[in-house]
Sequence to fold (133 residues):
Amino acid sequence: GTCWAMGNTPSLHDQLIDVKLNVKTLERAEKKCQKNRTKQLASVKKAIKEGNVEGARIYAENAIREKQQGLNYLKLASRLDAVASRIETAITTQEISKSMGTVVQVGSSTAPPPPPPLPPPPPPPPRPPPPPP
Fold:
């Protein structure tokens, strides 16, 4: 990630770039795990051919661990991708509200002046006195 000195908060664009870079890094790490897993599986086969059961077991455990690690990287990359989508939506929303603000300002500067306020209503007529009992 990028270092934000002196308490400056990063812009949404900077955050988006950071998140996307992290997604790429995680995807690369997952590919690396796949490659290592393939190597470990080849070693398992080789060890079995040579009758080295203990070695085969160790290589198999390594292969399983690499597979799990790769899946974890994929899950994390997927979550970060979702975050990136949310940030993109926020950026778009921000830009739209900014442009709406300028439209409203431009619209109000060219509009005719508002009509004068209405005069207050006349007071109600006085009530007639009640009839004598």
The chain has two helices and no strands. The two ends are 92 Å apart (CA to CA).
